[in-house]
Amino acid sequence: MMNYAGPAVLVDNLRVKRGSREVFHGLSLAVPRGALVGLLGPSGCGKTTLMRAIVGAQKTVSGTVTVLDSPAGTPGLRKRVGYTTQSATVYDDLTIRQNLDYFRSILGAPRGDVDRVIEETDLGDHANQLVGALSGGQQSRVSLAAALLGSPELLVLDEPTVGLDPVLRVQLWTLFRRLRENGTTLLVSSHVMDEATRCDRLFLMRSGEILADETPDGLLEKTNTSTAEDAFLAIIAGDTRQSSEAEL
Question: What pTM was estimated for this model as a whole?
Fold first, then answer.
């Protein structure tokens, strides 16, 4: 991996419109390099739109989004950034191994990467099954395995644990921490607040705004709460009070 000075992702004054609605009104944030960062908030708050902007897939964007010291969407980032969407992005009529070998060839990743990512995502028992015959959770894991090909420097994962059983969720978070320890930066979105404690840093989002940028311990201390869910509710309550006072 190459070493760079700045954050892995730097978003400055981001504005995004979807139809007639402005999702972000000048959002700014920085994702620390080499950290496991959680992007948490309720469904519809803008997490997916932000991730699409970071990987260069979002239209109608103004402001700047810099990823690994290059503008988001730059062709050179394709091999350096892994991305999974909420829906599986693999081919139903191919087996897991065929899917991964296809994506590996596009990326130019080593042949041994297929076996590596199959093992990391615990798909070995199903490697020769058609993806269309798998459960939704298994299909999501195939998408994650594809994102791990080539050992990207940044992983942008949109709700990767949705639909997974508790045991597999724990296994995936263990994998995420191991990747972080090896120098990978991870931005992982979720609406499950108990996953906050597994991260190094947290962005709490609501209605297109970042309400908090804290470590898990710092968040609990700042809000004088014992759980991430209570902390989020306390921040929302404080934000609502401030908005009401500003209108008076």
Answer: 0.90
